[in-house]
Fold each of these.
Amino acid sequence: MENTNFKNRRYTTLSKLKDGVAIIPAAGYKTRSNDTEFTFRQNSNFKYLTGCNEPDAILVLTPHLEKKDHLFVRPNDRLMEIWSGRRLGPEKSKEVFDMDECYSIDDFQKVLPELLKGHREVFLDLFNETELLMKVRKICMDLDPRGRLKTPTPKAFRHVSSLIEQQRLIKDQNEILKMKKAAHATNRAHRAAMAKAKVGANEAEIFNLMEYVFRQNGAHSSAYESIVAGGVNGTILHYVQNNMQLADGDMLLIDAGSEFDTYASDVTRTFPINGKYTGIQKEVYEIVLEAMKNSFSKCSPGHTLEEVHMESVKSLSQGLRDLKIFKQSIDEIVEKNLYKEFYPHGTSHWLGMDVHDQNPYMDDDFRPITFKEGMLFTVEPGLYFQPDNLDIPSELRGMAVRIEDDILITESSHENLTAMIPKEVKEVEKACEENYEQFL
Ligand code: GLY
Ligand code: MN
Ligand code: MN
């Protein structure tokens, strides 16, 4: 059951708007090809403030009016509902979403002018909602073209998202619960993949199995296109082709996480396709695992994502020295960015409704955000040895290892939400021996 108090969330946003009206649209259907659409995914900010899953709705927040939250939704339409599914309609929506007022979306142009009066600004997603921006701009222009009204009308537009994204940075108990449910389904799917993968199987089989296990465990979808990358494919960071045969002696890098009620998990594991790491695979794997553990040491209140990243960078640089790829000192490898050939991405990103959650990385003074209880992010060090790099030992060429977990900052430390997914060498090899049917 949904316990979230969306009204309170809207009040928090309202308290930050001062003289401005916020206009936050739902997502619409996106065309995939003629007459067919992509699976609908609600706009995260809209969902965060309403709990509403309907497309083509608009939330308007008006701090200076007596009625403060207004929702425009698609009207009831028997024929359309037979074709595309039931609609709540304005009357029921008012009650279900606890709005001060609800209207048909068809009345948006007619009603909005009244909601704008008395406010000096409009907060809107200026970067992604250009069509709506143009429409609202025109309404503002027509509202008081000769400057004769005795009440303010909006004369400035500001970007709304940063307000809400700051609010979304700290996750509440309901959000954490959903992320734990996403993590649970992800755990089952990664274990199933370890059990199922074998020499000669296809990446697509593992991909499909994971999608199935996500949904079997209550997740609504995957949070992003899964990466199921056998052998050298793991050296392509965003490999999503997922249709190659798995070869003996290779590892399989899987970056896949489920989404539960618009909350993401994001997990990577790299395991041997035949069930046993080779000597050199184990060596590289242990370097990445140690980098991850060193990064965990900075996952507590007061630290920053930059510090988490630097722990992995230093640790991986040491590992690259141990592998005899570099002779230089750790400081030189780090300062001259030499490690970037083998570790080209960051260690962390915020995680929440969006897999790369739209939360600020810098505070108002452009200093890195310091961790507080309720913040959630990934830790995902990796090492990638490109197949065409002739400066490294041949046994490393084409090898890729990434390990990724989801970390919640707690009052004095952190909780690893995905710690139950095997990642120690022995645990992983054991998980590879299991029968995958237990996960179906
Ligand atoms: N799965 C996307 C990422 O790890 O950032
Ligand atoms: Mn990630
Ligand atoms: Mn990932």
Amino acid sequence: MPAGPYTVGMMQKTQAVRAMVQRLESLQRAGVTHLGKVPQVEPAATPAIEPARDQPQSDVQTAALAAVARDVAACTRCAELARTRKHTVFGAGSPHARLVFVGEAPGVDEDRQGEPFIGRAGKLLTDIIEKGMKLRRKDVYIMNILRCRPPGNRNPLPAEAANCREFLDRQLAVIQPEFICCLGAVAAQNLLETTAPIGRLRGRFHDYRGIKVLCTYHPAYLLRNPAAKKPTWDDIKLLMAEMGG
Ligand code: URA
Ligand code: URA
């Protein structure tokens, strides 16, 4: 039988169902088990094979991230951090982001409000995103190696980073970004599991589970060392070129 409109329609539906099943399986592999309502696949005339990046917020990824956030809020793996924190700082931005920024750990402002990068370094990061990259902060995703503030802003301990890694990986598994930008040595070394200095990690792409990773200086470092703004901007331009903008 020649392929008429009916046959084509069936093929599209089959593809849409397959895409949905793959999505759910990948969420399951990521340990996301509280998806809530399972979405129905509508037999649409032109099914969306690829999820759009500007979908409404009440979708599968939003629900999946909310489930991870509940686990983070209840986490007591790092006894000292759980005892001293005011809030956990889960992450913020779009569940459909192509680009995820990874910082080090919440500071005093972030701990107080439960939001990443809202202090002085955060304002500089927002400028890099909005004035430099011409993106909206709410369209990227921002998180840290740690979801709790280390007392006195000390560096994360290896055990703390290891405890928090499951959450970072689950968030990435839900968002499935194409790009990660590591901010500073702590983020870069932890994510890429290396001891190489940031000066050697920056300026080129690395791979993390199929995601292209660019490392650059931390905005807090830029505030103390304005001379590092130039190489940081070079890194950001490299990232923008790779993202196709
Ligand atoms: N510095 C970080 O690394 N992360 C934040 O969220 C804030 C400051
Ligand atoms: N050391 C860091 O930890 N981060 C930077 O961005 C630069 C130096």
